[in-house]
């Protein structure tokens, strides 16, 4: 695609399965334009100038979209009109400070969610408890380099890979997975990889450690 375009161009073949528009100056998406691409499975809009208002309603009617890359833009919240078919979403390196459960309820089949290098923190309402619970099929969650002070509560039990590197986490509570009771982590048998490197952890509860018996690979450092 031509570099430094400002809008999603017309003229893309309607049967295109992969549309790559990264590294441009795109700052808006024409409403209903993407709906015409009924075969599109993979859309890359990385490294553009997209804001929340610029993408509102843009993805709602895209029937076959499975992979959507919106990393390195200017987004402040997670889009709430994601397509039902979506399996992979990348929103790294934006300005995300807010997400709602309503956004995830629209795409229960999501497998990979990457939200690294944003401003998400659970000291406020930016990351409410159980906000990710609708994602009952999620396998990989990347929250590296945000502003989390504790591991979010109510994570889906389906998660196999959890990345929390470079946050401000001081505690890992037992209710991180699908509940608020300390015993709930004992059911997190799908977890295979956990990275807590570069946080402020000084100790981890015994119940949490027991729950990690099934985790094949995990990294965590104590910082005193």
How would you portray this structure in words?
This protein has two domains: 1-95, Leucine-rich repeat, LRR (right-handed beta-alpha superhelix), CATH 3.80.10; 104-224, Leucine-rich repeat, LRR (right-handed beta-alpha superhelix) (Alpha-Beta Horseshoe). It is mainly beta. The longest helix has 6 residues, at 206-211. It is elongated. Mean pLDDT is 85; it is low at 179-186. The protein has helices at 52-55, 101-105, 206-211, and strands at 18-20, 42-44, 67-69, 88-90, 112-114, 140-142, 161-163, 193-196, 217-220. It has a nine-stranded parallel beta sheet, with no helix packed on it. Keywords: Leucine-rich repeat, Repeat. InterPro entries: Leu-rich_rpt, Leu-rich_rpt_typical-subtyp, LRR_dom_sf, SLRP. This is Wu:fc23c09. It holds the Pfam family LRR_8.
In CATH, the architecture of the largest domain is Alpha-Beta Horseshoe
The DSSP helix count reads 3
CATH topology of the largest domain: Leucine-rich repeat, LRR (right-handed beta-alpha superhelix)
Q: What number of structural domains do the residues give?
A: 2
What is the rounded distance between the termini? 51 Å
Largest sheet: 9 strands, parallel
Tell me, briefly, the overall form: elongated
The portion of residues forming beta strands comes to: 5-15%
Structural class: mainly beta
Q: Outline the low-pLDDT stretches.
A: 179-186
């Amino acid at each position: 695609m031509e570099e430094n375009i400002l809008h999603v161009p017309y003229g893309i073949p309607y049967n295109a399965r992969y549309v790559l528009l990264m590294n441009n100056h795109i700052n808006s998406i024409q409403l209903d334009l993407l709906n015409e691409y009924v075969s599109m499975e993979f859309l890359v809009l990385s490294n553009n100038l997209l804001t929340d208002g610029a993408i509102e309603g843009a993805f709602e009617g895209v029937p076959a979209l499975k992979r959507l890359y919106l990393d390195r833009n200017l987004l402040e919240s997670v889009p709430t009109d994601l397509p039902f078919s979506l399996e992979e979403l990348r929103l790294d390196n934006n300005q995300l400070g807010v997400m709602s459960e309503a956004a995830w309820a629209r795409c229960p089949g999501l497998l990979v969610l990457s939200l690294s290098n944003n401003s998400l923190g659970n000291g406020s309402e930016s990351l409410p408890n159980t906000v990710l619970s609708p994602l009952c099929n999620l396998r990989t969650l990347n929250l590296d380099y945000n502003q989390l002070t504790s591991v979010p509560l109510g994570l889906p039990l389906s998660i196999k890979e959890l990345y929390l590197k470079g946050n401000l986490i001081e505690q890992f509570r037992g209710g991180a997975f699908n509940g608020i009771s300390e015993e709930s982590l004992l059911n997190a048998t799908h977890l295979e990889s956990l990275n807590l490197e570069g946080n402020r952890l000084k100790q981890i509860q015994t119940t949490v450690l027991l729950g990690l018996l099934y985790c094949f690979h995990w990294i965590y450092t104590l910082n005193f």
